[in-house]
Design brief:
Layout lengths: L8 H8 L7 H7 L8 E9 L4 H10 L5 E4 L1 H6 L1 H9 L3 E4 L12 H19 L5 E2 L8 H9 L3 E2 L4 E2 L10 H11 L5 E5 L3 H16 L3 E2 L2 H4 L25
Parallel strand pairs: 1-2, 1-7, 1-8, 2-3, 4-5, 6-7
């Protein structure tokens, strides 16, 4: 499955104001990595937690980059783990302050949970998140407005191993699920707090590497698209896009 790529506005303007075509090497330099490579974005929610170091070790072995949607209250408990994720070159996203569904909260409460998490991650890592995932995948107009205010784009994911279901928490089953839902351009939702998911990753990464995949962050996957804060990406009109996670 290919992800639609758009030329950034600044680049489009630059091209429109020049009479001569850019040299071939210059055009190649601007081309998004995933336009020419088979990419998949693996994402892990609810951390940082007790299995994080094992997961980071596995990702490093396969030179894989991932996106971690972190919970503010856990970042507060584990600042060193949060810093280790960033130092390893992974992307950190905002997953609100705790597991409360934002659709059950007032506008002011949503603003505080997203805002407090944004500020804490920024303070802890020195870099402000640009991607957001709502707990349970549940969103409303308030979430859209507040994420837009903080410059965040919403990334609910395009597929999931369903490791949030207790009956799925078996290493072999989650390995099979991950390989089944994998696809070019997919954003796969998993949880680093599920030990069986972390234990399944060596086999999953080995198999997907053999299939020619490059493991990239969400921002790398979306590189070349014109992103609007508050909106949902990848394209929410995709058949597999809408998910609600327990």
């Amino acid at each position: 499955m290919a992800v639609r790529r758009l030329i950034p506005l600044a680049v489009a303007c630059a091209l429109a104001t020049t009479a001569l075509p850019a040299p071939a090497h210059a055009r190649a330099a601007r081309e998004p990595f995933c336009a020419t490579h088979k990419c998949i974005a693996l994402t892990f929610d609810d951390g940082p937690g007790q299995y994080n170091q094992a997961l980071l070790k596995t990702l490093a072995k396969y030179k894989a980059k991932a996106t971690f949607f972190l919970i503010g209250s856990e970042v507060k408990k584990h600042p060193k783990l949060t810093q280790a994720i960033a130092k390893a070159g992974h992307e950190i996203g905002n997953h609100s302050w705790d597991g409360r569904y934002l659709t059950e909260l007032t506008y002011a409460e949503i603003n505080k949970k997203i805002g407090d998490t944004q500020r804490l991650i920024t303070k802890t890592t020195g870099k402000a998140p640009v991607v957001f995932r709502a707990p349970g995948g549940l969103r409303n107009g308030g979430v859209e407005e507040i994420t837009a205010k903080f410059g965040l784009v919403q990334i609910p994911g395009t597929s999931a191993t369903k490791d949030y279901i207790k009956d799925y928490r078996d290493v072999d089953l989650l390995t099979s699920r991950a390989l089944e839902v994998a696809g070019e351009g997919e954003v796969v939702l998993m949880h680093e707090t599920v030990k069986e998911t972390v234990d399944s990753m060596p086999k999953v990464l080995k198999e997907l590497t053999a299939q020619g995949y490059h493991f990239v962050t969400v921002s790398t996957l979306l590189e070349g698209e014109e992103l609007i804060p508050g909106q949902v990406y990848p394209d929410p009109t995709r058949d597999s896009m809408t998910m609600t996670v327990e």
